[in-house]
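The instructor's notes for this session suggest beginning with a concrete chain rather than abstract definitions. Hand out the sequence below and ask the class to guess, before any prediction is shown, which regions might be ordered.
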Amino acid sequence: MPKRALLSVSDKTGLVDFAKTLAKAGYELISTGGTAKALRDAGLTVADISDITDFPEMLDGRVKTLHPKVHGGLLFLRDNEEHRKQAAAQDIAPIDLVVVNLYPFEQTIAKPGVTLEHAIENIDIGGPSMLRSAAKNYRSVTVITDPADYTVVAAEIVSSGDTTPATRERLAAKVFRTTGYYDALIANYLAARLPEPEPFPETFALPLRRAQALRYGENPHQAAALYGQFPRHFQQLHGKELSYNNLIDINAAVRLIREFIGADPTVAILKHTNPCGLGSAPTLAEAWAHAYATDRQAPFGGIIVVNRPLDLPTAQAIAEIFSEVIIAPAFEPDALALLSKKKNLRLMVNSETAAPAPGLEIRSCVGDSFLLQGGDADLVSPAVWKVVTKRPPTEAEREALLFGWRVVKHVKSNAIVYATHDRTLGIGAGQMSRIDSSRIAIWKASEAKLSLKGSIVASDAFFPFPDGLIAAAEAGATAAVQPGGSVRDAEVIAASDERGLAMIFTGQRHFRH
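After discussion, reveal the predicted structure:
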């Protein structure tokens, strides 16, 4: 009995040539609908699925392959005598090779204005069922869901008349990854339509498609790849391929600049995901000067992000140092021409005009576990900040406190930022004690020859002891902003009052581990 192949695809790339190889190798071809027509138009002999099942396609094509003669032909164990007897009794012949790719649900829901009804009609039922049946019985059945695999399968069939066990097993694994991805897309699409979507359901489906392989991860000995896609508002204009570390830094830079959408022209410089300088001013060039003045050493090899189209004066200033990535809403032509002379400098357009709604943040954990949390997108409005000291902040101090609070939210904990209303002066990040972060921030300001007299200090979490606050006062800070919530808040407040500092409690911390 000749081997049989069932072909039913939405993506017909390479299908005809592959089917011709099968036919030449002696396979009997079975097909459905548009796939059968395409094969016949190419001059191939094809049996309709209804000829095999003795049952018509019905319900607008919803039911055509969901039949025992299809799934029995895929699933029965060829080396099981009882299975063979049952198959023969029901006139079920083996199906040895299946080529199926699924209705384009992903592309359908990506279209603007797609209706629920149209989306549902593009949920494939028969395709995943056949793929799963064939993959379950991969010891005997070859299953293909990706046209990229035609070449390997065709070569093996031409060479030996069949595929190798290793190829069949690899393709079976690919099938279950494909159907898992497909089901996750559908689950998330439907879940997002619920009046009250469940933020942390009992099971969590995360559909991810590999976008590109990366040269390596954080270090050259670590393999890495990017899954998913950059949002449509991102575009790389110039420079070499983005690295793993670039992508991590870009994520941090974009989150930071979102705090300044609609604000004065603002420039932020980041290194290893931490801000090392940020400034706002009437022009980008002035904002760059403010940001760069905070720390003239750390920006080497850093990430620069701006909230205005990058102009030539700013580009000329930035070009004086080595940077890895520059991100802007747009690049003016002369600025782009100048920066493009740096062969490896990555230039990224981020045309995002409004901060998106907070999504989920996902982090791998011990073993095969993952941590999920809601995004830390919002800042507590200054309108509800609580003055806890005898002296309230002046209007100028309040502006500086808001500026510092926006920045410190994006510094790794323990985080301390000294700032004025339009620039950072000293940043301390990632220390095991808050007093050490404060000392580092003071030292960095001193290195940059920046006075902290009249500055404000922002702390991402509460001061657990008065020492951090005292250090800030001694350095010249006149006001502080912090979440509050320490058992020693009263001591910290008393230390502020003794030194004439104004202090705000926001009631919301911003740890970044």
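Then share the key points. The first strand starts at residue 4 and ends at 8. Residues 165-192 form the longest helix (28 residues).
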